[in-house]
Give the backbone structure.
Amino acid sequence: MHAITIPDPGGPEALVWDEVPDPVPGEGEVLIEVAASAVNRADLLQRQGFYDPPPGASLYPGLECSGRVAEIGPGVAGWSVGDEVCALLSGGGYAEKVVVPAGQLLPVPSGLDLRQAAALPEVTCTVWSNVFMIAHLRPGETLLVHGGSGGIGTMAIQLAKAVGAKVAVTAGTEEKLEQCAALGADILINYREQDFVEEVRAATDGRGADVILDNMGAKYLDRNVRVLAVNGRLAIIGLQGGIKGELNIGALLAKRAAISATSLRARPQEEKTAIVAAVREHVWPLIGGGHVRPVVDREIPMDDAATAHRVLEESGHVGKVLLVVP
């Protein structure tokens, strides 16, 4: 088969479409013939040599894919060759074939084509696990989403609105904010021109955000704590703004607030299986019913993954960038 390899870490040009051995499914695994994968910022870090795959995972980038089941490994039940699926991966999505534990498979939701489904696994599992399973967002509460126009953000807006929450978002252009509003965002904040602490407080009568989904890390830590409501929950899922920040523990105590920080890729298989099962139970009916949809910015041939990485680095996209098998 062919896959995107990284012979030497570096810029987008480090991604090479090369011939490699076919993967073979083991106990509890299935082999997927890939139709599409999606680009995540973790892939950019891996390309640069900063984010190695967990032990035992494929060395090729790609944390999600869609395709058809091509082979069933020993001990797998409930799936058949030819099933159209999407999957949460620890790596290997930038390829014509990939092996995945059966517990990380999801059926393609009704109403979506096979390629579109590649935009779902990573974002739905990230948002559901952090915003709902850990931070327990409830109807009537306010969710603040940093980077509201990205893949994670566009899904977070829709899921929060679907459960009856109010949503505030930050984004860098008015055009991106308009697209967030079209998905249901209530409070629109241009982080280049406005202070999100002031804007969220003003829009919530001084209460603040009950839950924050943060992809920035250190840069926003102090302001995130300041804008949290009493009993608020800050969920950190990214470090685009650095890894070391100063935390005012007194402010955290005064608000009886909590901070969680998680990554999805390195979680044990049993945790990923539980998250995927929860997503299938709670999110898939919303997608099938047309209440939630993946937002796809563009499709790019997988052998031109370098272009897709440049798109993400330039941050001109809204939603997900897909890589389709040529």
